[in-house]
Design goal:
Blueprint lengths: L5 H36 L6 H9 L5 H13 L3 H14 L3 H13 L3 H10 L5 H14 L3 H18 L23 E7 L4 H17 L4 E6 L5 H9 L3 E4 L5 H4 L15 E5 L7 H13 L3 E5 L12 E5 L6 H11 L9 H14 L3 E5 L29 H6 L30
Parallel strand pairs: 1-2, 1-4, 2-3, 5-7
Antiparallel strand pairs: 4-6, 5-6
Helix pairs in contact: 1-2, 3-4, 4-5, 5-6, 6-7, 7-8
Length: about 425
């Protein structure tokens, strides 16, 4: 029997190594091309082929890991999101990767790890740190600590927001006409295929008729909303407005804000499709209408530490001139961000709040911020329920006795609710 050819073995090993290297290079090239196509279209909705191409790249491919993490997060696969966010963070401990990993840890209930990441972070701004701690302490069962951190977050966000315009135009004020239902609009965004939002939208349309008889629900939609949902909304007297030119992935959260640019509207409320209104909310809105202020906002949960929650505010139309142009500019400024989950909150903080500051009636059951008032008496909700709550979570929480710390609901308006996959919070930068 002849002796093995050791040189041949070495050559085979080198060949196999070169083959593996070429395979990795091809996988990276394919992932890069896939990422370029996704970036060009500006929407983070991945096809099966795109997912396969990104997964074939090595775990050290930062952009592939970030996109896979964002996709998993949007799909509600928080275990997958955590895996990919950890991979991206190990490649680069950038502020964006850190924020995404923090969100994934929070959604997976890994609260100690999330708090440790916050404590060690060299990136987090003070206002972001306090807001995150408010959410984490609430999930950990300490609503009082959540309120303490939330109060600090609000003060810091106000201090960090741009100054109010100077000179400031006089506010647009008008008398509320309860007979003009078509001029008093409750605005929602609705897109995607998630039944949670379609069912929530239908419940909203039904409940609004009784809680808000002087108002008309209006849903800003795209082609993804099924015909059955459209027909059901129309049957309840809701208005439907298609927004074909503003793609949902980037603009969907903002569609409902476009009610400000509609000159046929006098008053509007901005709400989430999956958060059904209640008597406590309606009483607060009635108090706002009596007060004669240009703007109204509400906070009703220990994690509602936002200046304006995207699904819990309203205005007399005409006080935010140029809304559409401002939205376009803001979204374009964020074009390089993979996931636009918190963009509407950033927009409200940076563009709307400076114009609202000092001209708003705030109803707030959690924080003593800028002269906020308690909600009108006599309209308390059952334990475990609050204004802006995801309607699919409310029954279970109420039945369970619903202490705030048992399970923190998503931050309304930050999840503030809309399309498929939107579970919302200040997540996935």
């Amino acid at each position: 029997m002849s002796e093995p050819d050791k040189g041949s073995d070495k050559g085979n090993a080198r060949g196999q190594g070169n083959g593996a290297e070429h395979g990795t290079a091809r996988a990276i090239a394919k992932a890069d091309a896939t990422i370029a196509r996704i970036a060009k279209r500006g929407a983070l909705r991945l096809s099966e082929a795109e997912i396969a191409a990104l997964r074939a790249a090595p775990p050290t491919h930062e952009l592939a890991q970030k996109m896979l993490g964002a996709h998993a997060f949007n799909a509600g696969d928080y275990a997958g999101a955590l895996h990919h966010c950890q991979n991206a963070y190990h490649v680069s401990r950038s502020p964006e990767n850190e924020a995404n990993l923090l969100s994934a840890l929070q959604r997976r209930g890994k609260l100690r790890e999330a708090m440790a990441l916050i404590a060690a972070s060299p990136h987090l701004e003070a206002q972001t740190r306090e807001g995150r701690l408010a959410e984490l302490h609430l999930r950990a069962g300490d609503p009082q600590a959540a309120r303490t951190h939330g109060s600090r977050a609000l003060a810091l966000k106000d201090a960090g927001a741009p100054p109010s315009p100077d000179p400031r135009p006089d506010p647009v004020l008008r008398a509320f006409d309860p007979q003009a239902r078509g001029r008093n609009i409750i605005a929602y965004s609705l897109f995607g295929h998630n039944a949670r939002y379609h069912q929530g939208a239908l419940r909203n349309a039904m409940v609004v008729k009784y809680l808000y008889p002087s108002w008309t629900p209006r849903f800003y939609i795209d082609a993804s909303v099924p015909k059955t949902t459209r027909a059901g909304l129309a049957a309840q007297g809701a208005q439907l407005r298609e927004v074909p030119k503003l793609e949902a992935g980037r603009y969907g959260l903002f569609w409902r804000f476009l009610v400000e640019d509609d000159e046929s509207v006098d008053f509007y409320l901005v709400r989430d499709a999956d958060a059904v209104p209640n008597a406590k909310e309606a009483a607060a809105v009635a108090a706002w209408l009596r007060a004669g202020q240009p703007f109204h906002l509400m906070r009703d949960f220990p994690s509602h530490a936002e200046l304006i929650l995207a699904g819990m505010w309203g205005a007399q139309r005409g006080n935010l001139s140029g809304m559409g142009r401002a939205i376009m500019a803001h979204v374009k400024s964020r074009a390089s961000t993979l996931n636009a989950r918190a963009d509407d909150q950033m927009f409200l903080r940076d563009w709307v709040w400076p114009q609202m500051r000092g001209r708003v009636l705030q109803h707030d059951s959690q924080f003593e911020f800028e002269g906020a008032r308690p909600f009108p008496a006599g309209f308390d909700l059952p334990d475990g329920m609050h204004i802006g709550q995801d309607d699919s979570a409310a029954p279970a929480r109420a039945m369970a006795g619903g202490t705030a710390g048992k399970r923190a609901d998503r931050d309304t308006g930050k999840d503030r609710g809309k399309g498929a996959g939107k579970d919302r919070g200040k997540d996935q930068g």
